[in-house]
Amino acid sequence: VPIEQIRNFSIIAHIDHGKSTLADRLLEYTGAIKHNSGQHQVLDKLQVEKERGITVKAQSASIVYNYNGKPYILNLIDTPGHVDFSSEVSRSLSVCQGVILLVDANDGVQAQTVANFYLAFGKDLKIIPVLNKIDLKQANPDKVCEQLRTLFDIEPDEVLRISAKHGIGIKEVFEKIIKELPHPEVDRTGPFQALIYDSWFDKYRGALSLIYVNSGSAKIGDSISSCHTKKFYEVKTISVLRPEEENVKKIVAGQIGLVGCNVRNIKEAIIGDTLHLTSTPVSPLPGFTPPKSMVFAGIYPSTLSEYTDLRKAIEKLTLNDSAVSVDMDTSPALGQGWRLGFLGLLHLEVFSQRLQQEYGTEPIITAPSVTYLIKLKSTKETEKKGTNELYINNPINFPQSFNITETYEPMILGTIITPDTYLGAIVQLCQERRGVQVQALNIDNDRIMLQYQLPLCEVVLDFHDSLKSLSSGYCSFDYEDYGYQLSNLVKLNILLNSVPCEELSTIVHVSRAQLVGRQMVLKLKDLIPRQMIHIAIQASVNGKILARENIQPYRKDVTAKLYGGDVTRRMKLLAQQSAGKKKMKMIANISVPRNTFIDFLKK
Ligand code: GTP
Which residues are listed for GTP binding in this entry (predicted)? Predict the structure, then answer.
């Protein structure tokens, strides 16, 4: 079709506001899928997504809609809706000319609505505001229109009112897309130039790249090259997603399609890379900033025999999720493992859930940590390295305090939207987490939007859960990266009978050291079994003891429960007890079972 009959758009919405339902309805309306064909929410492909009801990996569909006797191709680019995935949203939006801003008419504007609006607004995209779920009795579209006006300067008469579930207003959505969104500005006669905006691995066809063609065209058999790696490939397959794959021979500017070149290594299908015909080089399209790991966790097999399975599972999963960074790691207590980096906590949770569901592994996952920046005093060593900056996400690598000049921690800008009844409790929580208020705005007569600058480490643990529980689930939260900030960080050591136990150490803000030290010592007191010797558990910072607990000695007599007599049974039990001891790690003559570490590190 002519370029004037193409529209590329995304639906952006807060979680559960009905994005997948609307996408299904759009596909159904044009006959791309059958009504109630059991293909509900066809764009959410992964099992975890289904279970959690969240979209993780962006999927796309090309919809054909006839309007005024002409066929239009509407390319719907699916975007993930959750806080952790804003880099994926941003990536998807860069191939769109407009978005549908979908808002639940009962729930109103929520934190991700705000975050997603600004992502689209920042990219200069045309925004079509749509209220969903107007069929609900509690729906209050007028009030939500008021919120849209206050926050985004959107006039109520621009806002569509629909019910995705009941198919009300769907035709109007199509017409607005066609009338209001600009068509892509491309040059079909120019040299082939395409952007890879997603990629995944297919068992049979190798790496598949989802591309947006910015100029020219490519067909099966062409030799195409990557601007980034300079490697070249023969195009083997091209398909469009309707949403089922439909093979085509050629793809032209303005279109979106899936290209396969029989590449066995997914790392060669780089998201953000530009493709061109090998014979006609072009300059690269503005790429994307690569996804940045914000949250790290150690992953270890729960038994040694699971190591190989776990390694394979991690390799397979990271094949399709280039946002996960992988490093080897060893822990004296937990053995050989990995330190993985994630976009955020939800990303970590989704990943570990997939490890379990899809690969049947039950790994030990340590409490998440963030990356700190440490500036060191100049020494011969820093001169040799050419930098005195050190980024660490593992407390084991925290330098001695006398080598440090400054410490910095990663910050976020958090957006919270809440009914005003919970305001007091939320402000208190943010203050406890060392937050600094940036903005407080009434968005209607009983709802408030708060923005806080918060340390990421205070958010990764349970901030979101705490917010939800103190607001009975009525408040929403989203965050964006806010750079590093000078902060007084220290390493909190745990000592068992005066011997430091590295894998139990953590990095904390100096104001939290006392409290966290106290909590850790108490927890360990519960977890470490009594032994034949006295045990002192201490928490210390820079050699100063902040907290201490004792475990009194106790003779564990495994034979006590037997009434005398049987010598062989007695011997057998004693042998069992000594074998059990081998599984323990000895620290200063104290045997700490592996399970203690596991329970402690898991949180
Ligand atoms: P994520 O993919 O997790 O971001 O969620 P989503 O925005 O795709 O939401 P989804 O389409 O899964 O819808 C969430 C819930 O709202 C589902 O239970 C839908 O059935 C329901 N829902 C969607 N649209 C409507 C509507 O128009 N009216 C009513 N009453 N319910 C709706």
Answer: 13-20, 78-82, 132-135
Q: Is the CB of 133 under 6 A from ligand 1?
A: yes
Helix (H) or strand (E) holding 522: helix 513-527
> Residue with the nearest Cα to atom 21 of ligand 1?
18
20 marked as part of a ligand binding site: yes
- The reply to whether 82 sits in an annotated binding site is yes
Does residue 481 line the site of ligand 1, with CB under 6 A? Answer: no
Half-sphere exposure of 178 (CA within 13 A, CB side): 17
**Do the beta carbons of residue 513 and residue 505 sit within 8 Å?**
no
Please state the three-class secondary structure of 473-517 as a single string: CCCEEEEEEEEEEECCEEEEEEEECCEECHHHCEEEEHHHHHHHH
Q: What pTM was computed for the model?
A: 0.78
Give me the DSSP letters along 343-356. SSHHHHHHHHHHHH
Q: Considering only CA atoms, which of 257, 269, 272, 318 is closest in space to residue 91?
A: 272
Do β-strands 160-161 and 126-132 pair in parallel, antiparallel, or remain unpaired?
parallel
Strands 206-215 and 193-202, sheet pairing: antiparallel
d(CA 300, CA 331): 9
> Is the separation of the CB atoms in 132 and 102 below 8 Å?
yes
Residue that wins the pLDDT comparison between 433 and 570:
433
Q: How far apart are CA 40 and CA 31, in angstroms?
A: 14
Ligand 1 mean position, distance from CA 113 (Å):
15
Mean pLDDT calculated for residue range 269-293: 82
Closest ligand 1 atom number to CA of residue 81: 4
Chain segment 204-237, per-residue pLDDT in tens: 888 889 899 999 999 999 999 998 888 999 999 9
Spell out the residues 6+ positions from residue 355 whose beta carbon is closer than 8 angstroms to its own. 299, 310, 313, 314, 317, 361, 363
List C-alpha distances in Å: 50 to 43, 58, 132, 176, 360.
Answer: 10, 14, 21, 30, 18
| 473 annotated as ligand-binding | no
Q: Strand, coil or helix: what is 117?
A: helix
Helix (H) or strand (E) holding 441: strand 436-442
Q: How far apart are CA 442 and CA 440, in angstroms?
A: 7
Please give the mean pLDDT across all residues of the chain.
85
Distance 19 CA to ligand 1 centre (A): 6
Does the Cβ of 599 fall within 6 Å of ligand 1? no
In tens, the pLDDT along 37-51 reads 444 555 555 444 444
